[in-house]
Design brief:
The complex is a heterodimer. Chain A is an all-beta fold. Chain A has no helices and eleven strands. In chain A, the strands form two sheets. In chain A, strands 2, 4, 5, 6, 9, 10 and 11 form a seven-stranded mixed beta sheet that branches. Chain A has a four-stranded antiparallel beta sheet with strand order 1-3-8-7, with no helix packed on it. In chain A, a hairpin with a 4-residue loop joins strand 7 and strand 8. Chain B is mainly β. The N and C termini of chain B lie far apart (36 Å). The chains are: A mainly beta, B mainly beta. Chains A and B meet through strand 5, strand 9 and strand 10 of A and strand 5 and strand 10 of B.
Chain lengths: 120, 108
């Protein structure tokens, strides 16, 4: 079955860095576009970044552009998010999500999320 | 950027009720709209895509309609498992998608 498992979250000081990972299994990872989506505590969902199946096309939300870097390693079935210059407003649960191949450009599978807390 | 709004923000209902949630886009998104259900501490679950197509495995009491800028999610007969928060998502500007602020459905 499809599984997405995030890791790497934790407590970091403002200005610090963190690298999130998402391990994929149960499907051919290299066939799918992937995204990171975040949810601040008690708030709604915010799309963060997109990466194509090959990694050649990448997009970011304006709120993270220049600070976050998405990447993937198809040989390791893994998705990453390098987060630099972290701010308090980056505090959120970060989800990796798979773009559906049959349901249009929606997210059909999500990980359980990893919490990033930016605080001094 | 395309902005999404939802109404109401909170909805109190009883088991068996017919429930309708509205989602509006700041500009036309054709039928590029999805609905998700999220329970506390869990990831969102895809319910509806392309405004009215039911995701595989989702109960038929869920339905979606609309096009352009106004959309609705209807639960025909609310079940205990349906108390959750519902989000709409536009993907007309794929891959830079945006979500609505959510509608919490709680027990009356």
């Amino acid at each position: 079955q499809v599984q997405l498992v995030e890791s790497g979250g934790g407590l970091v000081k403002p200005g610090g860095s963190l690298r999130l990972s998402c391990a994929a299994s149960g499907f051919t990872f290299s066939d799918y576009y992937m995204s990171w989506i975040r949810q601040a505590p008690g708030k709604g969902l915010e799309w963060v970044s997109y990466i194509s199946s090959s990694g050649s096309t990448i997009y970011y939300a304006d709120s993270v552009k220049g600070r976050f870097t998405i990447s993937r390693d198809n040989a390791k079935n893994s998705l990453y998010l390098q987060m630099n210059s972290l701010r308090a407003e980056d505090t959120a649960v970060y989800y990796c999500a798979r773009y559906s191949s049959s349901s249009g450009e929606t997210f059909d599978y999500w990980g359980q999320g990893t919490l990033v807390t930016v605080s001094s | 950027d395309i902005q999404m709004t939802q109404s109401p923000s909170t909805l109190s209902a009883s088991v068996g009720d017919r429930v309708t949630i509205t989602c509006r886009a700041s500009q036309s998104i054709s039928s590029w709209l999805a609905w998700y259900q999220q329970k506390p501490g869990k990831a969102p679950k895809l319910l509806i895509y392309k405004a009215s197509s039911l995701e595989s495995g989702v109960p038929s009491r869920f339905s979606g309609s609309g096009s352009g800028t106004e959309f609705t999610l209807t639960i025909s007969s609310l079940q205990p498992d349906d108390f959750a928060t519902y989000y709409c998502q536009q993907y007309n500007s794929y891959p830079q998608v945006t979500f609505g602020p959510g509608t919490k459905v709680d027990i009356k």
